[in-house]
Amino acid sequence: MNVVSIRGAITVEDNSEKAILEGTSELLRTIEDKNHLQKDKVISMFFTATNELDQAYPARAARDMGYVNCGLMCFNEMAVKGSLGKCIRVMILYSSDVEQQSVQHIYLKDAKSLRPDLAT
User: Fold this and answer.
1) What share of the chain has pLDDT > 90, as a percent?
2) Is 77 annotated as catalytic?
3) What is the CATH number of the domain that holds 7?
4) What would the mean pLDDT of 90-114 be, rounded to a whole number?
5) What would the DSSP string read from start to end of the chain?
6) Distance from CA of residue 25 to its chain's centroid?
7) Which of 37, 47, 66, 83 is the most buried (most CB within 10 A)?
8) What's the mean pLDDT when you consider all of the chain?
9) Annotated catalytic, 87?
10) Choice among 60, 89, 94, 99 that is catalytic
11) Domains contained in the chain, number
């Protein structure tokens, strides 16, 4: 067994509880699907949100999806001039038989611009 990191990000339309939770859920469902995640093998998730997103913790969406036996933490994304706004990012630490190079990182909506090398 090995530990891999899975990265992802999504942008949301507005600073509302609904948009933050739905966006985070969409991102996590896509990561689950593309990486065949098993909830019991998730060690932890680290979320960041840009400064203007302050109506909900992204980790709440993960808890609502059943991630109850792993560590979840939320942070403010570093404010860099000209950076992408209304963005939620996640890094998942996952216990897996898969090698790091086989992980599929997921970037949705305007967050695709963060990793153009992953565009398909």
Assistant:
1) 97
2) yes
3) 3.30.1330.40
4) 97
5) -EEEEEEEEEE-SSSSHHHHHHHHHHHHHHHHHHHT--GGGEEEEEEEE-TT--SS-HHHHHHHTT--SSEEEEEEPP--TTPPPSEEEEEEEEEESS-GGG---EEEGGGGGG-GGG--
6) 9
7) 47
8) 97
9) no
10) 89
11) 1
CA torsion angle for 72, 64, 10, 23 (degrees, to 10)?
-150
What is the predicted pLDDT for the residue at 24?
99
- Which pLDDT score is estimated for 53? 98
pTM assigned to the model? 0.97
* Residue 63 among the catalytic residues: yes
Residues 2, 99 contacting (CB under 8 angstroms): yes
Could you tell me the residue range of the domain that residue 16 belongs to? 2-118
* From 7, 57, 67, 94, the catalytic residue: 7
